[in-house]
């Protein structure tokens, strides 16, 4: 797309401005690092122009503290107190689920994930936010905890101007098909492959 010129202009009857301002459904998937990081970068841009930002994390334990959460909490406070940027909400939708699967049964986690998606679906219908990050949402879809067709239907039918970014490995083919923007992070090298642990300021 040289100099911002699309390779093909669709015959959809829309003006360039109308086409530019359509809401975006983005998917960040693949085995490489940076899927959530890129989504939070987009959320930062959204906050800066005054959009209402809501983050929903599906896999992280409520006890897991990430740097982005702390930063966006401060940005939300900055908006509330001084009117700068947009409002921010941050929700952890999991019940302590982690890669080690130590807390709760699979049925418990499936139920919590389904409840989390039901809440997001309601908010989409109500147009509660302008910009949604559904962090690691591909995993409940992959595990069958949330129905892919139901999610796709709700995303395609969302009213107004609501952007949605979904992150996680192994995004379902149907989700990739309907998304406007799909980026696959490809792992070339990772410090953990050499036995190095995750570190503060890099992984969280």
UniProtKB/TrEMBL annotation:
GO terms for biological process: cobalamin biosynthetic process. InterPro entries: CblAdoTrfase_CobA, P-loop_NTPase. It comes from Mycobacterium sherrisii. Residues 1-21 are annotated as: Disordered. It comes from the Bacteria. SUPFAM superfamilies: P-loop containing nucleoside triphosphate hydrolases (SSF52540). Keywords: Transferase. PANTHER family: CORRINOID ADENOSYLTRANSFERASE (PTHR46638:SF1). The keyword Transferase applies. The lineage of its organism: Bacteria, Bacillati, Actinomycetota, Actinomycetes, Mycobacteriales. This is Cob(I)yrinic acid a,c-diamide adenosyltransferase. Coiled coil: none annotated. One of its GO terms (molecular function) is ATP binding. Pfam families: CobA_CobO_BtuR (PF02572). CDD domains: CobA_ACA (cd00561).
């Amino acid at each position: 797309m040289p100099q911002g010129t699309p390779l093909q202009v669709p015959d959809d009857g829309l003006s360039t401005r109308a086409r530019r301002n359509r809401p975006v459904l983005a998917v960040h998937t693949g085995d490489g690092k940076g899927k959530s990081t890129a989504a939070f970068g987009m959320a930062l841009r959204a906050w800066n122009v005054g959009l209402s930002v809501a983050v929903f994390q599906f896999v992280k334990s409520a006890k897991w503290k990430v740097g982005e959460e702390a930063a966006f909490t401060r940005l939300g406070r900055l908006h509330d107190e001084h009117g700068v940027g947009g409002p921010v909400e941050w929700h952890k939708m999991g019940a302590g689920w982690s890669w080690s699967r130590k807390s709760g049964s699979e049925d418990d986690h499936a139920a919590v994930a389904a409840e989390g998606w039901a809440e997001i679906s309601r908010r989409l219908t109500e147009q509660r936010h302008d910009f949604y990050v559904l962090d690691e949402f591909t995993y409940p879809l992959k595990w069958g905890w949330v129905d892919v067709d139901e999610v796709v239907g709700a995303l395609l039918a969302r009213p107004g101007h609501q952007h949605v970014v979904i992150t996680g490995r192994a995004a379902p083919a149907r989700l990739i098909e309907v998304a406007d923007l799909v980026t696959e992070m490809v792992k070339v090298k990772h410090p953990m492959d050499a036995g190095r642990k995750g570190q503060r300021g890099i992984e969280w």
